[in-house]
Amino acid sequence: MLFALLVNLTEAKPFANTYISFDIPDDWQCNLEVTEFVCRPPADSNGKYSMIAILTAKEVGETDSPQLYIQHLQDDVGSTAGVETVRAPTSTLLGQAIWLDATYLNSEVKNYQTRYLARTEGNLGVLVTFSAHRSVVDQAQSISDGIAKSVQVNSYLARPELNQDRR
Predict the structure, then answer these.
(1) Minimal CB count within 10 Å: which of 15, 46, 87, 149?
(2) Could you give all domains of the chain from N- to C-terminal order, each with its CATH number?
(3) Alpha carbon of 151 to those of 37, 131, 148: distances in Å?
(4) CB 101 within 8 Å of CB 19
């Protein structure tokens, strides 16, 4: 399991759909589950995963803005009984994009720290949730940074009429 944690995203493989593309460590597997990619490293000897990343993108709606994302994280996620705020929502530069970045303990799974990364670009909203068992959070930080830095948004594929306006 330790080997899986030390994999660098310089050894990465790409995943893509119509809206987004991103890189994950070579030994991770991603599956498209309805509207989101669910990505995991190899399971341990007990069949459990120390980390999981979920990436999704959708057309921006009325509830998609940085202010509403912050409000949701603070009011809904952060105020739930048993959930601890590790890092309150803040803006973080990852790669060439500003992400709303917040981390909570026990928000998705007990004893797992979940990092929420969200941004809007063009007409798309992108959300990355990255959960890691508390025993591996230090190693998980660099992996979640790498995944977020690699995310490429193609808002013109989401709404082809926008691309025609550019011609």
Answers:
(1) 46
(2) 2-159 (3.40.1000.10)
(3) 12, 17, 5
(4) no
